Each structure stands twice: as structure tokens, then as C-alpha cells.
Amino acid sequence: MRSLHQTYEEFIAPHRFETPTSQLRLMEAICERNNIKRAIKRVIKNKGAPGVDGMTVRKIKRYLDRHWTKIEKALMDGTYTPLPVRRKEIPKPGGVRLLGIPSVLDRVIQQAVAQKFNRIWDHTFSEYSFGFRPKRSAHDAMRKHREYVQSGLRYVVDIDLSKFFDRVNHDRLLARLATRVKDKRVLKLIRSFLNSGVMIGGLEQPTKEGTPQGGPLSPILSNIVLDELDKELEKRGLCFVRYA
Q1: Predicted local distance difference test score (pLDDT) of residue 14
Q2: Are 53 and 102 in contact (CB under 8 A)?
Q3: Could you give the angle at the alpha carbon of 225 between the alpha carbons of 51 and 28, nearest 5°?
Q4: H or E element: which one contains 66?
Q5: Could you tell me which residues come within 8 angstroms of residue 50 by beta carbon, excluding any fewer than 6 positions away?
Q6: Predicted confidence (pLDDT) per residue in 22-37, tens digit
Q7: pLDDT at residue number 139
Q8: What is the three-class DSSP state of 86?
Q9: With contact defined as beta carbons under 8 Å apart, do 162 and 95 qualify?
Q10: Averaged in consecutive runs of 10 residues, what is the pLDDT profile of the chain (244 residues)?
Q11: Where would I find the beta strands (DSSP E) of the chain?
């Protein structure tokens, strides 16, 4: 039988909103034990291929048991340095989708950050945004579309943001983050992930724009960027559904 504390930590705590005061010490919240445990569990569940260091998800628990104290100190000090992502091409109609696969350790850190960012940001997003959001799915987006049709709307404009993940402006994204994220260590960590580079054919190439598809942090970052678009569409009184 679950204790009241277990129920709170598993079902209630993940959905609290972060307050301005707690955001000043956001890095401490990111590194908090239960948040890291949830991140490890999610990364292991998602499986996925190794990054450039070759570490598999099966080894991450033991690795963190041995090295977490050092990793946590680097995060707190603002000296944590992510590894470059590994380039992977996925076939798609008309071409390929370029993925950037972070190391398993970096995926855990990104997931821990994403969990906190979801608390800070998700409740501020448009009700018409359905992509990469907790407890929202393609079926929810389809239901909203059906409501529009049943209301008498007949014309549809289909918009695809070409190479969106590859073209995100880093400075604009970080400026947007800074409106709600007050812990400068976290902003520095995000920039280090964005600038971590990509390994192609054994050579590291810099990343001056974009947020790599393939990391746990990219979905929430994309929604933070595209929230400006959603709010503008709402302001103009347009009916829309955004889904990734």
C-alpha cells in the first residue's frame, strides 16, 4: 500500500507550478533526488541508442551511483559540459530527418530539466497546442478539429514549419526562457546543450542555431518558442490546432 508521501511525490508534486522564489534556485530543484530518479526512469523506459561515448541506458544507474556527487557539483557550479550529439539520419518522405542523439548522461540531465520546465511553462501554453505536451495527444487534436468542422468551418490551411528544429535562434530562445527562468546557472546549462556541437564522421562540428531532435529537452523548448505563434493566432481570433 502506498504511503501518503509516495502518492504525493509520484502524482501531485510533478504537476505543481514553480513559484518565482523557487525558480531562483531552480538548479537545486533539477538536481533534487526524486526529480533525478524520475528522469533516470524515463530515459531507461525510452531506451534509445548510445551517444558519442557509447554508454548504453543499461549502464546509467551504476554510472550515476559512482559519479553523481561530481556531476551534481558541476551542475551547481555551472561547469557541466555536455558531449556533442551523435548525428543519425532517419528516412522520411522526400528525404531524411536529422536527429542529434545526446549521451545517455546528457539525456538524464535534459530530462530532469524538462520535467521542471514543464511545471513552469506548460500551464501557460495555448489550449490549442497539443504537440509534446503531458496528457495531450493526437486524438485530442483531432477532437478539436472535429469541433471546428461541426461548428460550420469549411476551409483548412495546413502549415508545416520546415526544418524548425534546425533553425531555432539560440539568443531568441534564451531571451524567452529568461522571462520565467531566473536561475542563471540553468540558462547557462541550456546554452551549453544548444552549443554542444554535433559529431559527424568522427569530426565535431559547431551548432550555432537549432535544437537537436532526439534530446528530451527539445520538445519543451520548441513549445516555448512556438507559444509566441500560438498567442498571435489567438489574438487574431483564428481557429487552429497545432500538433507536432
Answers
A1: 47
A2: no
A3: 60
A4: helix 60-77
A5: 56, 86, 101, 103, 104
A6: 567 999 999 999 999 9
A7: 95
A8: strand
A9: no
A10: 47 50 81 98 96 96 98 97 93 84 98 97 96 93 95 92 88 96 97 95 91 91 95 96 89
A11: 85-92, 95-101, 198-200, 203-205
36, burial (CB in 10 Å: exposed 0-12, middle 13-18, buried 19+): buried
Tell me, what DSSP letter sits at residue 196?
S
Picking from 39, 46, 195, the residue whose alpha carbon sits closest to that of residue 105 is 39
Enter the C-alpha cell of residue 205.
Answer: 562540428
Rounded to 10 deg, the angle between the 184-194 and 170-178 helix axes is 160
Q: Which helix (H) or strand (E) holds 173?
A: helix 170-178
Q: Edge-to-edge strand order for the sheet containing 95-101?
A: 95-101, 85-92, 198-200, 203-205
pLDDT reported for residue 162: 83
- pLDDT of res. 7: 45
pLDDT of residue 194: 96
Three cell numbers, residue 20: 518565482
Among residues 48, 79, 46, 43, which one has the least CA distance to residue 63? 43
